Amino acid sequence: MPIYHQLGRVPRKRHIQFRREDGASTTRNSSATWRFDGPSSLVYHLQHPTQVKAVRLVKVLDWHADPEPFFRHRHFRTSQLAPGAA
Q1: Burial of 18 by CB count in 10 Å (0-12 exposed, 13-18 middle, 19+ buried)?
Q2: pTM score, two decimals?
Q3: What string of DSSP letters covers 25-80?
């Protein structure tokens, strides 16, 4: 038998449309540790989790085109670098 734990106001049934007090729709997502087996969470967000609070210029980057635009496998041997090398 599943054990349900709830925090705050939740809908009367699972996986249905849920609205805030002002009538706006909430964002819902499900998460589990492994596919749909085992414990999982059904989370209703009041704001979008990816909501942007501010946009600002941090640094101007000087981009240069790659002279060889083809994909090539690279193997960086970082274990052979001296400590502190950059």
Answers
A1: middle
A2: 0.42
A3: BPEEEEEEEETTEEEEEEEEESS-TT----------------SS-S-------GGG
- The domain locations on the chain are 1-50
Mean of the pLDDT values across residues 61-73?
84
Identity at 4, one-letter amino acid code: Y
Contacts of 11 (CB under 8 A, 6+ apart): 17, 18, 44
Reduce the DSSP state of residue 6 to 3 states and report it.
coil
| CB-based contacts of 6-11 (< 8 A; 24+ apart in sequence) | 10/44, 11/44
CB 35 within 8 A of CB 28: no
C-alpha closest to that of 39 among 47, 31, 28 = 31
Among 15, 76, 21, which residue's Cα sits nearest to residue 46?
21
